[in-house]
Write a structure and sequence with these properties.
This protein is an alpha/beta fold and about 650 residues long. It contains 25 helices and 19 strands. The strands form four sheets. A seven-stranded mixed sheet has the order 9-8-10-11-13-12-17, with helices on both faces. A five-stranded parallel sheet has the order 2-3-4-6-5, with helices on both faces. The chain has a five-stranded mixed sheet with strand order 14-16-15-18-19, sandwiched between helices. Bound molecules: thiamine diphosphate.
Length: about 650
């Protein structure tokens, strides 16, 4: 934990809650901002975490908490990765270095953590809807409450933000939307809207003239009225104001989001104007830490680092075993070379999904669509209609956003779209908002889908190839990080659909394992002298193997890194029930609860999905009479 030294942080040290901040004189605020930024840099350098976005909104955080009566007034942070300064000002300065760690502060705002965290986040573009909902409900209850949504230009690429603006502009509720523009998402932001905002940022003269003229003119004078009309005209050509004003919002800005006095003045105005307001601020991601300003992609989220040296390149272990993300990235390049029909789509996660090299090699075949998962999936469907073979690289948790598109646009039309689903299962430090706990359940019930879960790196590559060859929708879901380190064959061979592979023949007990759970089950099967089957396919399931295992064993266990409800094990249950089998059966997977943040290993342990936890569940199921071959080394938790 970073100890706050009273001498180094005299003002910050006096702030336990925003009420303390509000007791400061306005001319003390720049000093408070300087201390807050310095403290943030020291803290994140110690603990790791989201970095650039927090640095970009230090002044905004101070201005909002200074001018609004928080927590009675509501500030809703979009995504929440920029909320570290907010957490520091709201009573959590001493614990900020525990962020993302087991039992530590949550990675994003969380209602149960603080009354200042008004809305739980993690997924983007929810803030305007949530703040509008709060404004409507507060008004209905006769509460005099102000509601503010803070949203970045990256999050503004999502349709949901516009749905909320469209609604909010039509009501006359007190709502302030702060659009924090830095031209960055995780990567440089994309899209026509971004181009428009970019033009604006490169046109400071227009803004400068406008601000100066307004100050010089008497409100309601003839010149003022003339200038206002002229301004509308100019704005219509080069500014986003027309768009927002047509949507019913009173547009303020653009202003420099690091200029605290201007920020205070403008937000005070916005606060006191009734109805929906949109304040447009321009900031720099990583502001105040030069390496982060220069390379905001690298400093979006960081591990611990020395602030004097910056984030240093990883010492690469030799030989370097690739992560599943890297396996996918390599496969994508290899497949694209072989098949010109391949087009790849990412909803704003080019780096996280391992597509940087593909983008470098095939820029015209790589589509970053912004934070627009729904669009990404339907775009793929459209491409597939024209004979292309699209690959949608998407995190499991974000695919949840595009469920109807998956069913209605892809599966119903049986279109050949391959989903490369990263971060399936527990993700660790990003916590339950980002866990991919449900994809097997929500995909398994969709007709036409083929669903695969690799147990190692080579299998992942072969499954991606299999899914790509399939002339219908297919998904390969793999977990965060590395697999067991299997050598990856260059050649690619399609796996017959629905074919499992038996890894070990044992007696009495058969373990049917899916994907990441195959590896921790190897040692268990050995020790219990159990049969171990790597199921490989969640859909179609290997019915023959399931029924044969049921006939030749006394008990069955299924193991998966997905919700038990509706997951792969449920599918096995359905096969057995339909065949009239009454074999005793245990489904192991994620129970009906959200697993909180920690390392991935800690999360697996908490879920009972490390080898010790799986063994405990199996032996509990088998009962006390069952003999174990030798005690299992439960210190080894699963190995991935
Ligand atoms: C639905 C969804 N898709 C993807 C992400 C991953 N993600 C986290 S932050 C981020 C970029 C947000 O950009 P912006 O809103 O401009 O904020 P900035 O980091 O630039 O301050 C993305 C794509 C997410 N959190 N939610």
């Amino acid at each position: 934990m970073v100890r706050m030294n009273t001498d180094s942080f005299p003002i910050l040290n006096s702030i336990n809650t925003p009420a303390d901040l509000r007791r400061l004189e306005e001319d003390q605020l720049p000093q408070a901002a300087e201390e807050l930024r310095r403290y943030l840099i020291e803290s994140v350098a110690t603990s790791g975490g989201h970095f650039g976005a927090g640095l970009g909104c230090v002044e905004l955080t101070i201005a909002l908490h200074y001018l609004y009566e928080t927590p009675r007034d509501r500030i809703v942070w979009d995504v929440g990765h920029q909320a570290y300064p907010h957490k520091i000002l709201c009573g959590r300065a001493g614990r900020i270095t525990t962020i993302k760690k087991k039992q530590g502060l949550a990675p994003f705002p969380k209602r149960s953590e603080s009354e200042y965290d008004t809305f739980g986040t993690g997924h983007s573009s929810t803030s305007i809807s949530a703040a509008l909902g709060m404004a409507i409900a507060s008004a209905a209850q006769g509460e005099d409450r102000k509601c503010v949504a803070v949203i970045g230009d990256g999050a503004m690429t999502a349709g949901m933000a516009y749905e909320a603006l469209n609604h909010g502009g039509d009501l006359d509720k007190d709502l302030l939307v702060v659009l924090n523009e830095n031209l960055m998402s995780i990567s440089p932001n994309v899209g026509a809207m971004t181009k428009m905002l970019g033009r604006l940022m490169s046109g400071p003269t227009v803004t400068g003239i406008r601000e100066r003229s307004k100050r010089l003119m008497q409100k309601d004078s003839r010149t003022w009225r003339f200038m206002s009309r002229w301004e509308e005209h100019i704005k219509g050509m080069v500014m986003p104001s027309t768009l927002f004003e047509e949507l019913g919002f009173n547009y303020l800005g653009p202003i420099d989001g690091h200029d605290l006095p201007t920020l205070i003045r403008t937000i005070r105005t916005a606060r006191d104007v009734q109805g929906p307001n949109l304040l447009h601020i321009i900031t720099a991601k990583g502001k105040g830490y030069a390496p982060a300003e220069q390379d905001p992609v690298k400093y979006h989220a960081v591990g611990p680092f020395d602030p004097d040296k910056g984030v240093e390149p990883n010492a690469v272990p030799v030989p370097h075993s690739p992560s599943y993300t890297e396996i996918f990235g390599q496969w994508l390049c290899d497949m694209a070379e072989q098949d010109h029909r391949l087009l790849a789509i990412t909803p704003a996660m080019k780096e996280g999904s391992g597509m940087v090299e593909f983008h470098n090699q095939y820029p015209e075949r790589c589509f970053d669509v912004g934070i627009a998962e729904q669009h990404a999936v339907t775009l793929a469907a459209g491409m597939a209609c024209e004979g292309a073979h699209p690959v949608v690289a998407i995190y499991s948790t974000f695919l949840q956003r595009a469920y109807d598109q998956l069913i209605h646009d892809v599966a119903l039309q049986d279109l050949p779209v391959l989903f490369a689903i990263d971060r399936a299962g527990l993700v660790g430090p990003d916590g339950p908002t980002h866990a991919g706990s449900f994809d097997l359940s929500f995909m398994r019930c969709i007709p036409n889908m083929v669903i695969m879960a690799p147990s190692d790196e080579d299998e992942c590559r072969q499954m991606l190839f299999t899914g790509f060859q399939h002339e219908g929708p297919a998904a390969v879901r793999y977990h965060r990080g590395k697999g067991p380190g299997t050598e990856v064959r260059k050649e690619m061979t399609a796996i017959p659909l629905g074919q499992s592979t038996t890894l070990r023949q044992g007696q009495n007990l058969a373990i049917l394992a899916f994907g990441s759970m195959v590896e921790p089950c190897r040692e268990i099967a050995e020790n219990l002298d159990a049969t171990l089957i790597n199921m490989r396919f969640v859909k179609p399931l290997d019915r023959k193997a399931i029924l044969s295992a049921a006939r030749s064993h006394a008990q069955l266990v299924t193991v998966e890194e997905n919700a038990i409800a509706g997951g792969a094990g449920s599918g096995v249950n359905e096969v057995l029930l339909a065949s009239g089998s009454a074999i005793p059966l245990l489904n192991i997977g994620l129970n009906d609860t959200f697993i909180q943040h920690g390392t991935r290993q800690e999360c697996l342990h908490q879920a009972g999905l490390d080898s010790g936890g799986i063994l405990d569940q199996i032996t509990g199921f088998l009962g006390p009479d069952f003999q174990q071959n030798q005690p299992l080394n439960t210190a080894h938790h699963g190995g991935n």
